[in-house]
Amino acid sequence: MHAVERAAPERVASLAALLGRAFADDPMFAWPLGAASTREHAEGFFRAFDERLAALGWLWTTSGDHGVAAWVPPGQDAAMMDIDRELRPGIAAVTPDRGARYEAMWEWIASKLPDEPFWYLDHIAVEAGSRGSGLGTALIQHGLAMAERDGVLAFLETARAENVGYYERRGFRVVVDDDVPDGGPHLWFMSRPPGRARPETGP
Fold first, then answer.
1. Would you say 119 and 71 are in contact if contact means Cβ atoms under 8 Å apart?
2. CA 70/CA 39 separation, integer angstroms
3. Are 101 and 185 in contact (CB under 8 A)?
4. Is the N end or the C end of the chain the one with fewer CB atoms within 10 Å?
5. Spatial distance between the Cα atoms of 126 and 18, rounded to a whole number of angstroms
6. pTM assigned to the model
7. What three-state secondary structure class fits 49?
8. Rounded to an integer, what is the distance from CA 184 to the centroid of its chain?
9. What is the DSSP letter of 181?
10. Do 4 and 62 form a contact (C-beta atoms < 8 A)?
11. DSSP character for 66?
């Protein structure tokens, strides 16, 4: 298993570049931003967002910065959403609708978060050339170990259908799937309760 460590603030720029490459075409980024969904805008967003997460100790990486994951601790989902709201003026500045779809989508997502305590996988990415090497599994297993330690759920959402099976092999199950209102992408909300068998290893 690859070693996972907290990402120091000085590593955020490199990790944001990775996230920009990974998320520019992700439906959760591309739909609300429309024509503004470029690699540069995605990288800028994640740099600003993850600077804050790294300062809080919620950002994790692997050796060489080839993988990154943001795991938000139990009881901090409201703080995470506050960070997102703080950055919305930047989204508004580059979108024709002044960020209206982005704001509506994330407020809708916030309404779907569990009522009980949970560790939240906000985002995860692995460098294209390192996929299949187990980095993603290591980053996921790291968060699941914290959830097991605390005896709480692990939770995530994804807009990529191909990710559903990947997460299911790591112990997650779909708890609800639905379209973002007003023509947005289809999202799968997935949960993993504590005590589930150890996830499969693999890519």
1. yes
2. 19
3. no
4. N
5. 8
6. 0.91
7. helix
8. 18
9. T
10. yes
11. -
Higher per-residue pLDDT: 94 or 189? 189
Closest of 34, 39, 49, 31 to residue 90, by C-alpha: 49
Phi/psi at 126 (nearest 5 deg)? Answer: -130, 135
Q: In the chain, what are the domain boundaries?
A: 4-192
Beta-strand relationship, 118-126 and 153-158? parallel
Question: Domain 4-192 - what CATH class?
Answer: alpha beta
Phi, psi of 55 (to 5 degrees): -60, -30
List pLDDT tens digits, range 56-81: 999 999 988 899 999 999 999 889 88
pLDDT exceeds 70 at position 197: no
Q: Which two tokens stand for residue 134?
A: 């187990």
pLDDT tens-digit profile of 50-59?
A: 999 999 999 9
SS3 72: strand
Three-point CA angle 20, 126, 3, nearest 5°: 130
Closest by CA to 2, choosing from 70, 64, 63, 71, is 63
Supply 115's token pair. Answer: 């009522």
pLDDT at residue 203, rounded to an integer = 42
The label of the residue with tokens 């309760």 reads 193
- State yes or no: pLDDT of 131 exceeds 80: no
CA atoms of 32 and 156, how far apart (whole Å): 19
Name residues whose C-beta falls within 8 Å of residue 97's C-beta, 6 or more positions apart in sequence. 34
